[in-house]
Specification:
With 84 residues, this protein is mainly α. The protein contains 4 helices and no strands.
């Protein structure tokens, strides 16, 4: 009489480290992007703003945009974590 494992209990980490969260491909909220684009901002910049403000809202994204328009990498394509 061998007793097997008791149930299929899966242990989930209760705290996911931030590095793991950031390795997921960031996704911009399309509504935020659309509203900013309608104000005359470039689509890429709007997506970055939404992602960098965690899709908090149009106002937050616009504030991020205005303070980062001079970033040297503002026109760099959006990608996952930089490797290397």
């Amino acid at each position: 009489g061998s007793s097997g494992s008791s149930g299929g209990e899966e242990l989930l980490p209760d705290g996911v480290p931030e590095e793991v969260m950031e390795s997921a491909q960031p996704v911009a909220n399309e509504e935020i992007v659309a509203q900013l684009v309608s104000m005359g901002f470039s689509q890429l910049h709007c997506q970055k703003a939404a992602i960098n403000t965690s899709n908090a809202g149009v106002e937050e994204a616009m504030n991020w945009l205005l303070s980062h328009m001079d970033d040297p990498d503002i026109d760099a394509p959006i990608s996952g974590p930089s490797s290397g």
